[in-house]
Design a protein that fits this description.
- By secondary structure, the chain is an alpha+beta fold.
- Among the domains are: 174-280, Beta Barrel (Thrombin, subunit H), CATH 2.40.10.10; 288-381, Pdz3 Domain (Roll), CATH 2.30.42.10.
- It is built from six helices and 22 strands.
- The chain has helices at residues 2-21, 27-64, 268-280, 299-305, 321-325, 348-354, and strands at 68-78, 82-85, 94-97, 101-115, 118-121, 132-136, 142-150, 157-161, 182-187, 196-213, 218-228, 240-242, 248-255, 263-267, 288-289, 292-297, 310-316, 332-336, 339-340, 361-368, 371-378, 380-381.
- Strands 1-4-5-8-7-6 form a six-stranded antiparallel beta barrel. A six-stranded antiparallel β-barrel has the order 9-10-11-14-13-12.
- A hairpin with an 8-residue loop joins β9 (182-187) and β10 (196-213).
- It is extended.
- Keywords: Hydrolase, Protease.
- This is PDZ domain-containing protein.
- It comes from Candidatus Roizmanbacteria bacterium RIFCSPHIGHO2_02_FULL_43_11.
- Residues 274-343 form the PDZ domain.
Length: 383
């Protein structure tokens, strides 16, 4: 036992001597230093990444926010009248009380400046032609809307504002959008919280939706829209969806009522085409129309009803080009300007009309009473 202790002391002495003279290294200490070094680097890298993302969003918002406006509606309404019973008047006990007039004024949507006196918003935001509107800028200044030009093809409108002091926003290119790309929605959600911003990503492209307004009860089918998970609420309609550079890539339009984190925006390239039309037409939107309401009969429906594919005419507008050309309710338009109408795309005829200009004479083939008939109509401006 005594020999064992002597051996241990000898080994300990050799180890300490070797360490002090550098013959023996301490790898465990170096290992701890490496761990400490790696741990100190990781939080620094994460911190830099967070700061970069935050600064990108902040810079984009700072660039776009001066161009964003709130749209306010003003309208005089009359409350329903009432009938009161007067027991002291046996000859006329029922008295009719007329309703009272009251002025309603509230924020109804959002928009963004595209020129010093022009604002783009959704058509359904300014759908009430009997109301008056004004816009409120980011710094709280209010300006009256002198005129509203509504696009019959898209849920868009151009507002002419009584000022020359708006800050135009930069329009991007929606054709270059990618899934997963960072986007920021700006607007006045619920009509109560101006300059609200939410972030998200591009969740989908080329979607088809039904857009509308809870205020006006307006609904419209929209195709080829952008889907995003950035929070979009009623009141955000018409506001810009911007990218990380602060450029507009879409116009906030609708939110899904069935689920959360699903919002939609009209691609900004549609706005650019609209503004080209507006500026080239002397400050108004010029769209040709024929004056019908129709439903598409695809191949399955056509076979079921023993009729050809095409646009089934549901309604003909009075004094429209269609009425003047002799189109009747119940007709099926099978060809427009030599192009066949088929499939279930609800906007196929509308898109073909849009390729023409006001005043063009167009040949159409209709199916009526089991016979085909050729008609010619002259396109007029949509009023």
């Amino acid at each position: 036992m005594k020999q064992v202790w002597i051996l241990l002391f000898v080994l300990a002495g050799v180890w300490f001597y070797g360490v002090s003279e550098g013959y023996i290294q301490k790898p465990q200490l170096d290992f701890l230093k490496n761990i400490e070094k790696s741990q100190s680097n990781k939080p620094l890298e994460a911190k830099v990444e967070i700061i970069d993302e935050e600064s990108t969003v902040i810079k984009a918002i700072d660039k776009a926010l001066p161009s964003v406006v709130t749209v306010e509606i003003s309208k005089t309404t009359t409350s329903p009248g009432s009938i009161e019973f007067d027991p002291t008047n046996p000859f006329n006990p029922f008295l009719e009380r007329p309703g009272r007039e009251q002025k309603v004024q509230r924020n109804i949507g959002s928009g963004f400046a595209v020129d010093k006196d022009l604002v783009v918003t959704n058509k359904h935001v300014v759908a009430d032609t009997d109301a008056t509107y004004r816009i409120v800028t980011n710094d709280g200044k209010a300006y009256a809307v002198k005129s509203s030009s509504r696009d019959p093809l898209n849920d868009l409108a151009v507002l002419k504002v009584d000022t020359q002091n708006l800050t135009p926003i930069t329009l991007g290119d929606s054709s270059k959008l990618k899934l997963g790309q960072l986007v920021i929605a700006i607007g006045t959600p619920l009509g109560q919280f101006p300059n609200t911003v939410t972030t998200g990503i591009i969740s989908g492209l080329g979607r088809g939706i039904t857009a509308g307004s809870p205020y006006e009860g307006f609904v419209e089918q929209l195709d080829n829209v952008i889907q995003t998970d950035a929070a979009i609420n009623p009141g955000n309609s018409g506001g810009p969806l911007i990218n990380s550079k602060g450029y507009v890539v879409g116009v906030n339009t609708a939110v899904s009522a069935e689920s959360q984190n699903i919002g939609f925006a009209i691609p900004v390239n549609v706005v650019k085409e609209l503004m080209k039309n507006f500026n080239s037409s002397g400050g108004q939107i010029n769209r040709p129309f024929i004056g019908i309401r129709y439903k598409m009969l695809d191949k399955a429906k056509a076979i079921l009803n023993d009729v050809p594919e095409g646009a089934y005419v549901v309604e003909v507008v009075k004094d429209s080009p269609a009425e003047k050309a002799g189109i009747l309710v119940g007709d099926i338009i099978t060809h427009f300007d030599g192009s066949r109408l088929q499939g279930n795309d609800s906007k196929i005829l509308q898109s073909k009309i849009a390729k023409h200009t006001i005043g063009d004479r167009v040949k159409m083939t209709i199916w009526r009473d089991s016979k085909q008939k050729e008609l010619t109509l002259t396109l007029q401006r949509f009023e």
